[in-house]
Amino acid sequence: MADKKISELTALGTTPANDDQFPLVDTDASTTKKVTYTNLKGGISGVIVGDTDTQTLTNKTLTSPTLTTPVLGTPSSGTLTNCTGLPEAGLTLSDNTTNNSSTTKHGFLLKLNNTATTFMNGTGAWSTPSSSSTLIQDTTLSASSSFDKSSISGYKQLLLIYNIEGSETSGNVNLDVTFNGVTGTSYNFNNRIGGVITDVTGSDGIRLTDTLRTTITCHGFMIIDVVDSGAQNIHGCSGHQIIVGNLGVNGWGGAGAFITSGDITQVTITPSSGTITGRASLYGLS
Q: For residue 255, what are the β-bridge partners?
């Protein structure tokens, strides 16, 4: 066969077979020898990696590599300073205070203390709120309507404030307050007017007044214990009232009890005869 330049040879066009041969100059022996494709691959294995080959790198340094959707396994260490896109599901939150919020950083929420009556205060600690009041009903009274609030819960005491006028031009209006819809002998309340102590409980509850009519107004307040005392089932209550009208000014201070087991869950002011106008508000005290 005539000599040809390498550039003039026919291209193979396919992957060489393992027994295909290449010329090789053996510089140690100063002679030309042949090498098969299998010999060549064996000589460069571990030095050159094909684009579809797999190789385990041990103690290797990759300088500024670009990794496209790699599966890294579980690295034993690493610095993620410039990494982005970490999913929330990838966070593992242990029971430690490393990233708790503070006055200088947002941080994470404290571990919940499983106590419904506490809250996290501005210093980052769980605290019990101080006593407070909540308006739970405010009612404008008219005609024969009454003040009534039921389903009361979550309070230690109740504060009832009222300002009521009778609407009758003749005859007096009776005004009574009851708890839990109970009437009868469950009340024991005395008021003091001008040095005279009077039991003002009856079949209709605690009698606030029996002299309301047009131009005669009563306003006052009553504090009521929501929770009973225990073995005696006593709910203490006390109050003060002023009656203003064409007969002058009169008033009373009083105290007593509502006797029943369980919490007070309902407060009602009812005109037991005649009609009234005015306003009544009920606050819950924690």
A: 190, 238
Write the Ramachandran bin of 60: left for phi over 0, alpha for psi from -120 to 50, otherwise beta. beta
User: Can you give the residue range of the structural domain that contains 192?
Assistant: 133-285
Give which of 128, 130, 104, 107 is closest to 116, Cα–Cα.
128
278 and 178 inside one domain: yes
**Domain tally for the chain?**
2
Q: Which of 158, 189, 185, 118 is nearest to 263 (CA)?
A: 158
First vs last Cα of the chain: how many Å apart?
110
DSSP state of 1: -
Name the β-bridge partners of 270: 176
Domain boundary among 77, 112, 129: 129
71 lies in some domain? no
pLDDT tier at 144, thresholds 50, 70, 90: low
Do residue 137 and residue 222 come from a single domain? yes
Q: What is the 3-state secondary structure (H, E, C) of 44-105?
A: HCCCCCCCCCCCCCCCCCCCCCCCCCCCCCCCCCCCCCCCCCCCHHHCCCCCCCCCECCCCC
Distance CA 83, CA 103 (A): 27
Strands in 205-212's sheet, in edge-to-edge order, are 147-149, 267-273, 173-179, 205-212, 201-202
**Are both 140 and 249 inside the same structural domain?**
yes
- Whole-structure pTM value: 0.55
- pLDDT tens-digit map of 12-33: 888 888 888 888 888 888 888 8
The CATH code of the domain that includes 227 is 2.60.120
Looking at the structure, do residues 178 and 219 belong to the same domain, yes or no? yes
What is the tens place of the pLDDT at every residue in 65-114?
Answer: 888 888 878 878 888 778 777 777 777 777 777 778 777 877 777 887 88
What are the Cα distances from residue 237, in Å, to 143, 187, 191, 224?
Answer: 28, 10, 12, 4
Same domain, 279 and 142: yes
